[in-house]
Amino acid sequence: MILQQELISLNEIFIQNQSYGNEHNPDIFSYFDKGSYVCLTAPHSTKTFVAKHLKGSDLYTGAITKYVAQHYNYSCIVRNKYMPETALISDFILQNRLENHFFLDIHGMKNGNGFDLAVGTGYFKPELYEKQLQFIDNLALKYVINNDNYTGKIGLTGRLEKATRKANVLQLEWSKNYRDIFNSFDNVNNVTVPFIAELSSNIENEIC
Ligand SMILES: [Zn+2]
User: Fold this and answer.
1) pLDDT-derived band at 1, boundaries 50, 70, 90
2) For residue 107, how far is its CA from the centre of ligand 1 (angstroms)?
């Protein structure tokens, strides 16, 4: 049973300051270590500076990521604040030697793409992620959500793959209908949170 109020309070840290986040936090990113192989990431939980421009936040991804991490015991990394310069989560991962995880990188996309979950495999062919994509297809059937694969080469997925040459990061883009903790709470409660938790568990158990 997910408490909407808990999601709302987790969300507050990210939406403060018009989604510029917590400017008083000295750290751009925070890593919460639960000792898991799976690590959930939310690099766009606040506004970010990407490719010389300001990008709006992927609303609610910070709260949903933290909620799943806390309740199901997975490590996570969230962005705490906007910085008016390039500050990549892939660099944070490499500098802190955290690359030996399987990353599920949680993002948001607009409604109306014809699907509600897009899965990015970065530079690598989907075949390298055959097991994980099968888990996702199974969960998409179970939770009755349309999913599609695409190959986003920028962002954490492509950057980490390039740096480590390992197939250990997938990008999950959720439509607003499956992120909005206020207007679509039932979807977040019945689909998004259990989907991410179960996918994490599938991947954790596959390896360990
Ligand atoms: Zn994003």
Assistant:
1) low
2) 4
Q: Which alpha helices (DSSP H) does 39-99 contain, by range?
A: 61-72, 89-95
Convert the pLDDT of each residue in 65-118 to its tens digit. Answer: 999 999 999 999 999 999 999 899 999 999 999 999 999 999 999 888 888 999
Total tally of structural domains belonging to the chain: 1
Q: CATH number, domain at 56?
A: 3.40.630
Distances (CA, A) of 143 to 85, 108, 123, 190: 39, 18, 28, 8
Collapsed DSSP state (helix, strand, coil) of residue 22: coil
pTM, full prediction: 0.96
Give 58 Cα–ligand 1 centroid separation in angstroms: 5
Q: How far is the C-alpha of 140 from the C-alpha of 96, rounded, in Å? A: 33
Going from the Cα of 106 to the center of ligand 1, the distance in angstroms, rounded, reads 7
